Amino acid sequence: MQASGLYLLFLCLGLSGHTIPSANSIPWQNSWHAALEDAQNRDTIIFVAVNMDGERANDQAAASLYHHQDILDWSTQCVSLIASRFEHRSQGTCPRFGTISCQEHQAVEKEVRDKVFGVPAGTSIIAPHHVFLDKTGKILLSIPYQVSHQELAWCFYAAMKKAYPERALKESKGSRAPRRVFWDEVLTSDRSKITPLTDDEVEVVVQRLRSTKGIEQRIPDLYALLATDHPDAIEAINQALQSAKGAGAWAGRGGKNGQSRLQEFRLDLIHKMGVYSPLSYWQVLVNQLEDANANVRQEAAVALEQIGAENAIKALKASLKNEEDPNVRRCLVRALGTCGAENSSARKQLLTFAKGKKEPAVQKNALFALGNHAGQKAVGKTLQKYLDQGDIQQQQAVLLGVGFARNSQFLPVIENLSPADPAVASTLEVVLQVAHGKSAKLLAPLMKDVLGDSIPRERFFPPNREDR
Length: 468
What we know:
Layout: H1 5-12, H2 32-42, E1 46-50, H3 56-63, H4 69-75, E2 79-83, H5 102-115, E3 129-133, E4 139-144, H6 149-163, E5 182-183, H7 199-211, H8 215-225, H9 231-245, H10 247-251, H11 255-276, H12 282-288, H13 294-307, H14 313-322, H15 326-339, H16 344-355, H17 360-369, H18 377-389, H19 392-405, H20 411-415, H21 422-435, H22 444-451
Parallel strand pairs: 1-2
Antiparallel strand pairs: 1-3, 3-4, 4-5
């Protein structure tokens, strides 16, 4: 398989190899038992990083995430373990992670697989995967798949606060809660689920797609690529969706039913991108915002909302100018909220929608989306106004947005509220539970009722363990 120019750039930067920059490294503890003993002696939490070779999100974490100053600062306050089953050097310090040997992080991986994930040898574990434990080894929270330094810094703070609520702790500047957080558990995986592929696995799947004719035979391989951050995987998905617009070639002899199956596949593939795909798939989803079918556009907007790629902001704003379908507009506003969580241009647009009165559904979703920006003065003033003077669902939308974003800057404001309406009071109670460490899944039914959510957001609200 021939690497694209973008992928060659990553190779040149060393992101797909074993060598990492010579920056400061997290002081990884050399064994599971030593980490437990150290955590108990220091009365602190344990940070576990599961990291494997051959997949870009893992390589980026090893190359840069674990060297970011915010993460290094937090690592000094806890005990850290790195778990990887790969060997990068037969003797001496591991060149990928530093401070410990490959034999040590391989032994840690076996212990973590058993003690934290509770799965036998040979079972697939999602990687990257970051888990926070209390000093006895009990799970506090976990974050599967790719995570930014702002999100991981927030997780350090949240885990420490959960384990030691009485301690005075300060959040890192600019930190924010990940949309996908598991409290008190980890996300386990098996081969029936969609997980990132290695470069070698991508090559096999892409070659098979090129030599396979007929949609029925190609569908399993297309799904298999969805979680993989590789340019060839992204291009294969993009081509599949673009080709699907010309339904004739893929409908085969199914006639009308074939067309229906194709449309169902398109919608499901886009939906699953929102659940499994990394940020790099944003352009594929943006392309679907121009589709003639409103259902396709709505699924693409929800997928972008879940991915949260800042690169998509310009396209989302352009789509909002032209979109007429009210359900799609509502979802585009929500996507602008997550993709523009740190963007002043997106914030300005959301404020305009929040103050508008012609589209009540769009207005409520804009008030919700502003939860990411509640620490900004103009936003805080607007949200406070609707909490004081808004109707019941406008008040609920503000509360749900603050709770979903876990915005600690605005938390004191809502903690001092005493809503007169029972529905608002009930919403506030749930939001405060989430703000103080309960699962965000508690918000899902309220968001459905207040915001009109009709498409599941599994990246935000994963199914229960028994349903996976």
